[in-house]
Each structure stands twice: as C-alpha cells, then as structure tokens.
Design goal:
103 residues, mainly beta, five-stranded mixed barrel, 1 helix, 61% strand
Length: 103
C-alpha cells in the first residue's frame, strides 16, 4: 500500500455501512485530477469515527483532501476504455467544514 494525499471533490454523498461483525464504516467516492488534468476516481473507506463524521458532513461536489493508504487499480468504462482509479483507506480528512479533522 502507498501512503498518499488526495485532493478532489466528493462524488455523490458518503454513506454509512455495517460489516458482518456489526462494525460501522463509511464509504465515499472522490473525483481527483492530476497535473495533466486527467480524472481519477478514488474509492474511499474510513473506519475511524472522526474521519467518517467529516465525510458524511460533506455534500456532493464539495472539495476535500484525504490522506491514507492508496492502492492503484483500473476499471473499464461503458465504451471499453480502461481508466485508472485508486482505493484509499482514509485516516485523515480536511475540508472547509472540519478544518484539521481526522485521526
């Protein structure tokens, strides 16, 4: 896993989920861009309560920065084009709503 810092905009809204053992976690998707203006979808999961609360407080399209472990992936869109994506286990989040929030 790669330690990473990602800045982007929330895609949709974060949602709370519960695993089979009854433990809660948050999932979200973030749209990020690189210097070449290429888009990347970052699939985010957060187990820390403070990070989760910060994510669910945000609305679709709001800006945020996340840090945590990254795993590079690829996916194929409807036109058959292979595109990059990232999976992130978020450990910290920063937004206009919760400056400095995180674990």
């Amino acid at each position: 896993m790669i330690d990473g810092l990602v800045a982007g905009r929330l895609m949709g809204e974060a949602s709370r989920r519960v695993d089979k053992a009854g433990r809660g976690y948050i999932v979200a998707r973030v749209l990020a861009r690189n210097r070449a203006d290429e888009e990347f979808i970052v699939n985010v999961i957060a187990f820390d309560e403070a990070v989760g609360q910060a994510l669910v407080a945000l609305r679709d399209g709001e800006s945020l920065s996340l840090s945590g472990g990254l795993t590079p992936k690829v996916w194929t869109d409807k036109q058959g084009i292979v595109r990059p994506s990232l999976d992130m286990v978020a450990t910290h989040v920063l937004s206009a709503h919760q400056p400095g929030a995180g674990a």
